[in-house]
Amino acid sequence: MHELSISLNTVDAVVEHATRQGFKRVTAVTLGIGTLSCIEPQALQTGFEFACRGTMVEGAMLGIDMISARAWCQSCQQSVTLAARGMCCPNCQGYQLVIETGEELMIKHIEVE
C-alpha cells in the first residue's frame, strides 16, 4: 500500500512547514491528486489518519481535490480529456498523447492554528 508511505511523507512535510512558520496545530490539509496517479483516495485517507497520530496534524481533516487528466494529441493537435491511462484520443482515436495533467500529487492547502 504505497498510500501509507505517501501519507507519512505528507504529514512529515506538513509538520515541517507548520513548525517552521511557528504554528501549533494543523486543522486541515487539502491534497491535489491526479486521476492518473494510481492513488486510491480511501486508502490515502486511512493512511493519513494513521500518519497523523501523535503529531500536530492529529485530528486534521483531509480534503482531496481530484485533478482531471488532460493530454495533448500530437495527431490531431488538440488538448483532450482522458478518463483513464492507455485511452486513445477521443477525437481522432490516435495514441500519440502527451500527458499534461492528471499525474499530480501536491499539498494544495494547509489550515493551521
Automatic annotation (TrEMBL):
One example of a Gene Ontology biological process annotation: protein maturation
Keyword 4Fe-4S: no
Residues where Zn(2+) binds: 73, 76, 89, 92
Keyword Metal-binding applies: yes
GO molecular-function term, one example from the UniProt record: nickel cation binding
Record family assignment: Belongs to the HypA/HybF family.
Name of this protein: Hydrogenase maturation factor HypA
Organism encoding this protein: Photobacterium chitinilyticum
Organism ancestry: Bacteria, Pseudomonadati, Pseudomonadota, Gammaproteobacteria, Vibrionales
